[in-house]
Design brief:
It is a single chain. This protein is mostly helical. Helices cover 56% and strands 5% of the residues. The protein contains twelve helices and four strands. The strands form two sheets. A two-stranded antiparallel sheet has the order 1-2. Helix 6 packs across helix 9, helix 8 packs across helix 11 and helix 9 crosses helix 10. Keywords: Calcium, Lipoprotein, Metal-binding, Myristate, Repeat. May be involved in the calcium-dependent regulation of rhodopsin phosphorylation. Binds three calcium ions. This is Kv channel interacting protein 1 b.
């Protein structure tokens, strides 16, 4: 059920079921997320985990939505020795599934659920859509280059060994050659999935995993 002010105010005290503090607080933000029960059914998180995630989300974004600049600011804190702005831009677009320039709590937890606890296929599909910058259903070499360079910029001086300027392009050329099975100049979702499954320790998944302390 979606928790809304109308649901709360139209219920008598005898009829009001017990709600956690976080569930009640969900009624006060400008953009209310789905109810915890519904999000629990739609993700791989427990209700308790969703409550913890929501507290953190609300602390950073009291309005209930994240715009791109706020997202970049938050993400940059995880990579203080590099420039994460470009990669954060592409990552923001991947979370913003409705293309409206903002991320709601539901968008955030749905994406996080896939990245952390989805099947290998689900993770690869999500990653494919990250690389498919223009959303045409294919990855071309220019798109892959954009993402890979953004990743190197984000890692900054912590790339090891230290890289030369042409190394990202060399990596893209090698990845693309392996993925583009029919040599038509673009990578389809199936080509991407097959190539990544062939490389069991897939670089793309590693680079997307959220750091767990």
């Amino acid at each position: 059920a979606v928790f809304s002010p109308r649901t709360v105010t139209n219920t008598t005290p005898q009829q009001t079921p017990y709600k956690t503090e976080d569930e009640l607080e969900m009624t006060t933000v400008c953009h209310r997320p789905e109810g915890l029960d519904q999000l629990e059914a739609q993700t791989n998180f427990t209700k308790q985990e969703l409550q913890i995630l929501y507290r953190g989300f609300k602390n950073e974004c009291p309005s209930g939505v994240v715009n791109e600049e706020t997202f970049k600011h938050i993400y940059a804190q995880f990579f203080p020795h590099g420039d994460a702005s470009t990669y954060a831009h592409y990552l923001f677009n991947a979370f913003d599934t409705t293309n409206n320039g903002s991320i709601k709590f539901k968008d955030f937890v749905m994406g996080l659920s896939t990245l952390l606890r989805g099947t290998l296929r689900e993770k690869l599909e999500w990653t494919f859509h990250l690389y498919d910058i223009n959303r045409d259903g294919y990855i071309n070499k220019e798109e892959m280059t954009e993402i890979v360079r953004a990743i190197y910029d984000m890692m900054g001086k912590y790339t090891y060994p230290a890289i030369k300027g042409d190394v990202p392009q060399q990596h893209v050329d090698a990845f693309f050659q392996k993925m583009d099975k029919n040599k038509d100049g673009v990578v389809t979702l199936e080509e991407f999935v097959v190539a990544c499954q062939e490389v069991r320790c897939c670089l793309f998944i590693k680079l997307l995993k959220v750091r767990e302390e």
